[in-house]
């Protein structure tokens, strides 16, 4: 029933084979979507080579550089989408960053620059990419971002990323309201803690994962594939009535009080 054949999906944020974005890209491809990805450009094109090798089995028709802190690169990425595909159906936003120093210790010691960087990359970039995607979603579309429980509850060491995720989830609601009349749906997936390159910067991440495994109703944490399955569902017509929501894929941990 879940069929994304003929849909063009741009997946941002793939860093390696542990990335949640990688799990999502695989499941979108499995459902029949035409995949495009971005990579973070650097002087030696190290990320380009890694991403190209990783996504090769998905036969992506688009691999483009994009640093969301550079407006011209964002514009160039969506210009490439328009030139290659003509339209966009699915946008996956898996972009987040905070300096390692901001992800441990006391939240009140967050620096001005650290705060601004985290919010720019992790929060504002969703609005930035959604604005660029909107004109290309001529037949409607689905925009999906990744959030975490730390945006609504205090998680040790998550600190400024909690503020960033709170802003991200609020952005989802405002974007959903704006884009709904254009048949564009905007949702967030709140995944349980997964060992990724990004999460490894959070102090005590392994303790966090073990706690979820002991406490969550399913007595485990979740996999990239499970998050990818939910993203595929939200990208499909099966989720045509769902927008502005945060969907928890965390083995039920979010419901627990103690």
UniProtKB/TrEMBL annotation:
One of its GO terms (molecular function) is enoyl-[acyl-carrier-protein] reductase (NADH) activity. Coiled coil: none annotated. Its EC number is 1.3.1.9. The keyword Lipid biosynthesis applies. Gene3D superfamilies: Enoyl acyl carrier protein reductase, NAD(P)-binding Rossmann-like Domain. Keywords: Fatty acid biosynthesis, Fatty acid metabolism, Lipid biosynthesis, Lipid metabolism, NAD, Oxidoreductase. It catalyses: a 2,3-saturated acyl-[ACP] + NAD(+) = a (2E)-enoyl-[ACP] + NADH + H(+). Pfam families: adh_short_C2 (PF13561). Pathway: Lipid metabolism. It comes from the Bacteria. Belongs to the short-chain dehydrogenases/reductases (SDR) family. FabI subfamily. This is Enoyl-[acyl-carrier-protein] reductase [NADH]. It comes from Geitlerinema calcuttense NRMC-F 0142.
